[in-house]
Amino acid sequence: MMKKQLMASLLIMAALPIAAQKKTTPPQQPIAKRVADFFKKAKKQVSATGQRIGEVIGLDQLDSDKDLITVDDIKYMPVYTKDLMTNREDAAKLKAAAKAEFSKKYPKVEVISVVVPQTDWNHFAITKKKITGYKRRAYVYILGRDGDDAFLNACYLFEAEREPGQEYVNAREYPQLQRVDAIPASVLSKIER
User: Fold this and answer.
1) Residue 166 Cα distances to 57, 117, 179, angstroms
2) What is the Cα 187 distance to its own chain's centre?
3) 166 vs 126: CA distance, rounded Å
4) How far apart are CA 57 and CA 18, in angstroms?
5) Which of 60, 72, 82 is nearest to 157 (CA)?
6) What gap in Å lies between CA 125 and CA 64, rounded to an integer?
7) Which pTM does this prediction carry?
8) If we measure between CA atoms, which residue out of 94, 96, 77, 76 comes closest to residue 85?
9) Given a cut of 80, is residue 192 above it in pLDDT?
10) For an engineered disulfide with 156, which of 24, 89, 98, 148 has Cβ 3.0 to 4.6 Å away?
11) What is the pLDDT of residues 90-138, one digit of tens each?
12) How many CB atoms are located within 10 Å of the residue 85 CB?
């Protein structure tokens, strides 16, 4: 019922300009083409708005989700073993903050490694028809031993934003726990990077 009303109102809206035409005006595009163009524009606007809202409230997909490894029909994050960040001071701060959060959440898990598997911060421009600010992100991965037969692999996101000419301001949740995988000991060697 709702679809019929919507389609009827769209057709009426599309037909009104035709009724107001004089013979001296050039002919307009057919109704079907105008309606199709209207829906294409609406779809693009809704998609762009949804993406912006997702970024604002933190629902954008993790950069690392595309790197998941499937073992026995279960998806795991890779276990990173190399610390790649070139700015050792930033890396030390990020790792210390992530390790403190991890130890608070999982006090009985023995931390084996803490790494930043990227060479530098990932930088992004924030745009609203023009550049309005900048965002940077870094990920820290922690591997911990959970008893004798399992491991935990955790990913923490560090994110900060700044306006042009200003300093970076950390996000409300800094660091933000993105994902934790419980890994059986038999799977660990298959997902190490």
Assistant:
1) 22, 27, 31
2) 27
3) 14
4) 43
5) 60
6) 20
7) 0.66
8) 94
9) yes
10) 98
11) 999 999 999 999 999 999 999 999 999 999 999 999 888 888 999 999 9
12) 20
Query: How does pLDDT run across 15-27, given as a tens digit for each residue?
Result: 666 655 555 656 6
Three-state helix/strand/coil letters over the chain: CHHHHHHHHHHHHHHHHHHCCCCCCCCCCCHHHHHHHHHHHHHHHHHHHHHHHHHHHCCCCCHHHHHCEEECCEEECCECCCCCCCCHHHHHHHHHHHHHHHHHHCCCCEEEEEECCCCCCEEEEEECCCEEEEEEEEEEEEEEEECCCEEEEEEEEEEEEECCCCCCEECCCCCEEEEEEEEEHHHHHHHEC
Q: 139 with 155: CB under 8 angstroms? A: yes
Neighbours of 144 (CB within 10 A): 21
Alpha carbons 51 and 45: distance in angstroms, whole number: 10
**What pLDDT, in 10s, does the model give residues 45-62?**
766 676 666 655 555 554
Q: What is the mean pLDDT of residues 73-102?
A: 94
Structure token pair of residue 64: 């690392």
Cis check: omega of the bond before 17, within 30 degrees of 0: no
Question: How high is the pLDDT of residue 137?
Answer: 94
User: In a 10 Å sphere around its CB, with 0-12 CB exposed, 13-18 middle and 19+ buried, how is residue 151 labelled?
Assistant: buried
| 156 vs 12, more confident | 156
